Amino acid sequence: MKMRKPCNGRLSNVVLKNAKFWNGKSFELRDSVSLNVCEGAATSEFDCKGALVIPALFGLGIDFMEPLRDDVYTFADGFDALRKGGFYGGLYESAANPIDDADKFTAMVNRFKSEERGEEAFDIKFLGAYSKGFGTDSLAEMVELAEAGVAGFGDGNGVIPHSRFLRLAMEYGKMTGKRFFFQPMDKTLRHSGCVHEGAYSDMLGMKGIPRIAETIAVYTVLETARFLQVPVHFKQVTCGETLDLIRNARKMGIDVTCDVGLYHLLFDDSCLETLDSAYHILPPIRSAADRDALWQGIVDGTVNAVSVNHTPVLRQDKVVNFEDSVPGALSLEVALPAIWNKLVAKVGEARAVELLSTAPASLVGSASNANNVVVLAPNEPHVVVESDFAGHVCNSPLLGKELPSSILATYINGVLTEL
User: Fold this and answer.
1) Helix, strand or coil for residue 367?
2) φ and ψ at 179, to 5 degrees?
């Protein structure tokens, strides 16, 4: 039995009233649910008014950009975003700060802990870099990183390296037994593109990124994984052809998993008509047919998890011409109310919980406890405003839009946050 935490003055136990509580299979209405995590703490009450009490979420694709860019965002901002969105943890990989040796990993872990309040710590897992500085000149010390505790190895959401370096990295990393995480993108085919190559990019005169920039990279990684017998994960898959490659690879016995990004499920490239740089994310939002294919991958089980890919960008880096803007979008605070009803309509409540919470956590060896929950009113619309986001940035394509659901409160590691 897990011991209760000592109370530090901020933590509290909570009684949720009139709640539809998730029992592992379905939601059942209960007059009250007591969540006791802190020895000797006061007890708060919160009236859920018939709202859903959902297991807290685990976020794939989290980047707070600090310490290199703490003018953009801080760890404290990120923790606030996690708490507001109902996330008990996540997989962290910073494009700005590669963790390419054990000392950097230890420094990052300690930095996270120093920003939190001891027992209130979120369950943050880290990806180590498989190359020095996310480059293609030298390999990172992957064995040391694995021994230090990284969850796997990643590319900093960069393009796939040339085939020889990819083989060397995966061959060395195989010794650790860790999974490799790739955002599949061929460097030469991406070139300077920033949107999906299709009718809208042609109409608007924007530089496009073709689907084959993804599929060729996926095929290269899968062939290398098959040859070396290394487990791989593809981040932010965007098109149906990629899912077909993954399905076929699994039939061949390759250990391959994948996720789909929140915004790739919500939008298609018709959003480019607005010329709003909030839609500038990488990999790009693709066509309506691609979006439908991603949803089919969720329905048939090809997609393992829904990722959030939370990347803060300064306002001045977004309020410019689309092609000159910095790619990235915030999502932690709005992911659940934006996607929950759509997921439930497609695959049911149990699978929706799996895609947002248990499945992404299991990919990196994490697990929440029953006391971490988020209270969601599924039929209470909410218009997204700047104050919904933590910190001083608000780069989200959902800003100003009405979401079908609203988060009423979260209870993460003994801290009740009412919204």
Assistant:
1) coil
2) -85, 145
pLDDT of residue 136: 84
- DSSP-assigned letter for residue 73: -
Lowest model confidence (mean pLDDT) among 7-11, 241-245, 251-255, 291-295? 7-11
Q: Cis check for the bond before 337: say yes or no (omega within 30 of 0).
A: no
Cβ-based neighbour number of residue 400 at 10 Å: 13
State the average pLDDT over residues 194-216: 95
Measured distance CA(246)–CA(239) in Å, rounded: 11
When pLDDT is averaged across residues 261-280 and rounded to a whole number, the result is 96
* Strand partners of residue 412: 415
Residue 49's SS3 state is: coil
Q: Which two tokens stand for residue 87?
A: 């996330």
3-state class (DSSP) for residue 416: strand
- List, in sequence order, every beta strand (DSSP E) within 236-299: 256-261
Longest dimension (CA), the chain: 64
Amino acid at 307: S
Strands of 232-234's sheet in order across: 57-62, 87-92, 123-129, 152-154, 179-182, 232-234, 256-261, 305-307
pTM: 0.94
**What six digits make up the tokens of 135?**
């480059």
**What SS3 state is found at 273?**
helix
Written as six digits, the tokens of 161 are 């390296």
DSSP letters, 3-14, are PPEEP-SS--EE
Place of tokens 């649910």: 33
**Residue 308 to residue 372: CA distance in whole angstroms:** 19
**Spatial distance between the Cα atoms of 236 and 217, rounded to a whole number of angstroms:** 13
Is the pLDDT assigned to residue 4 strictly greater than 60?
Answer: no
Q: Are 180 and 170 in contact (CB under 8 A)?
A: yes
188 CB burial (10 A radius; 0-12, 13-18, 19+): exposed
- From CA 320, how far away is CA 23, in angstroms rounded? 48
- Say which amino acid occupies 381: P
pLDDT bucket at 73, cuts 50 / 70 / 90: confident
Judged by DSSP in three states, 25 sits in coil
Cis before residue 404, ω within 30 degrees of 0?
Answer: no
pLDDT value, residue 293: 98
Q: Classify domain 5-418 at the CATH class level.
A: alpha beta
